[in-house]
């Protein structure tokens, strides 16, 4: 049924004074300083505010074109709503999807499931960066251009390519789950391209440096500093995994540690005989022989175990005479994995020890260094059959070329 206009009538529009406007049913007619009448619309369609200029009277635009534009927009919105999930009246915004995504992950993912330990990182990436930048977009209308613009701005604001890539990984995972949960169709997902990350120079500790680090840890004022270093060098475990070890999760007979909250899901961590012996002696000296290996030292701690050993490790590195800018806790993991490679262990076996999700991820830690590389390259070593003399391999002089 056609709308009846009481204010925005043709006589009223003709009599508009410069700078004045009339608005009715989402249509605005305004007399410009040039004497022209400009028509625009300002409506809500599918939960979104649409405000746009339709055109000027001098261009042949009338109130009828503005009415037709509104009808076309609302028809398109009605057709769009045919794809809505059951019980929804409007499409999800990215912000709404992010909230539902995190809530669903936390409700359906347990400590034994892959990715459980990474939920906190996903929440941080979404709440601090992705939602503030992309939250107002409709989930099924988030474009490749918007994603690329987000990544470009983050880098311009000072974020490293690796940091932005981790945020884009969260975005990619959200869209994969959204398709799985039938929030949208696969073809409505944007293309998410990660940028190349510069290869960082990796620090590997020599056997002498490892001993220096252990000696420095033993003399540190923190009584558990040596234990942290011993595990890091003997098990190739991550910083956070070490601090979450419980004594009742250590199988001393088989030299295994159960890791319920690893980056790639729960796993069984093999340990060396020396480390198993150290841990057994440590357990025998504890009053609580089944609790946390690194219990929290502060009464207001949010976790029952320590959350970081960064400050202690910094002291230890300095006492060992090493550069703390290069030697971080993760260097112990790098070192242990590289030693496995040098021992010619096969990659699937190393993967069992390191806990990497995929072999491709493990390859980043297989560095071009060590005796095994020298032995391999020696297999193709070949020299020249006869000595080279300077006289035979000197370019001919101009006079010699002329005579020839």
From TrEMBL:
CDD domains: INT_Rci_Hp1_C
Classification via InterPro entries: CB (IPR044068), DNA_brk_join_enz (IPR011010), Integrase-like_cat_sf (IPR013762), Integrase_catalytic (IPR002104), Integrase_recombinase_N (IPR010998), Tyrosine_recombinase_XerCD (IPR050090)
Protein name stated in the entry: Tyrosine-type recombinase/integrase
Gene3D superfamilies the UniProt entry points to: 1.10.150.130, Intergrase catalytic core (1.10.443.10)
Membrane-traversing stretches: none
A Pfam match: Phage_integrase
Tyr recombinase domain location: 200-378
UniProtKB keywords: DNA integration, DNA recombination, DNA-binding
PROSITE patterns, A to Z: CB, TYR_RECOMBINASE
Domain Core-binding (CB): 92-179
Source organism per UniProt: Sphingorhabdus buctiana
Domain of life from the UniProt record: Bacteria
């Amino acid at each position: 049924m056609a709308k009846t206009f009481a204010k925005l009538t043709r006589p009223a529009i003709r009599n508009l004074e410069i700078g004045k406007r009339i608005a009715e049913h989402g249509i605005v007619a305004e007399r410009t300083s040039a004497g022209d009448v400009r028509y625009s619309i300002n409506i809500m369609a599918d939960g979104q505010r649409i405000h746009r200029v339709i055109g000027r009277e001098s261009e042949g635009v009338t109130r009828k074109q503005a009415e037709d534009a509104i009808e076309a927009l609302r028809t398109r919105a009605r057709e769009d709503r045919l794809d809505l999930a059951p019980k929804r009246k409007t499409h999800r915004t990215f912000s709404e999807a992010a909230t539902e995504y995190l809530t669903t992950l936390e409700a359906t993912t347990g400590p034994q499931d892959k990715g459980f330990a990474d939920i906190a990182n996903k929440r941080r990436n979404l709440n601090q960066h992705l939602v503030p930048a992309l939250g107002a977009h409709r989930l099924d209308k988030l474009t490749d251009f918007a994603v690329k613009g987000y990544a470009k701005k983050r880098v311009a604001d000072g974020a490293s390519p690796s940091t932005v890539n981790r945020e884009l990984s969260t975005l990619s995972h959200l869209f994969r789950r959204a398709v799985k949960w039938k929030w949208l169709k696969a073809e409505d997902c944007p293309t998410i391209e990660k940028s190349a990350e510069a290869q960082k120079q990796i620090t590997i500790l020599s056997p002498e440096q490892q001993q220096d680090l252990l000696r420095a840890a033993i003399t540190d004022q923190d009584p558990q500093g040596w234990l942290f270093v011993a595990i890091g060098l003997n098990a190739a475990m991550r910083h956070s995994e070490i601090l979450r070890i419980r004594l009742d999760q250590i199988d001393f007979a088989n030299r295994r540690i159960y890791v319920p909250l690893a980056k790639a899901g729960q796993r069984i961590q093999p340990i060396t005989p020396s480390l198993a012996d150290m841990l057994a002696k440590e357990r025998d000296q504890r009053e609580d022989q089944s609790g946390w290996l690194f219990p929290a030292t502060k009464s207001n701690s949010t976790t029952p175990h320590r959350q970081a050993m960064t400050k202690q490790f910094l002291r230890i590195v300095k006492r060992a005479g090493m550069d703390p800018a290069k030697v971080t806790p993760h260097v112990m993991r790098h070192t242990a994995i590289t030693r496995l490679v040098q021992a010619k262990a096969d990659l699937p076996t190393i993967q069992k020890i390191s806990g990497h999700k995929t072999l491709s991820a493990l390859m980043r830690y297989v560095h071009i260094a060590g005796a095994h590389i020298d032995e391999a390259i020696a297999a193709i070593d070949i020299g020249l059959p006869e000595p080279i003399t300077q006289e035979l391999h000197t370019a001919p002089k101009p006079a010699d070329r002329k005579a020839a």
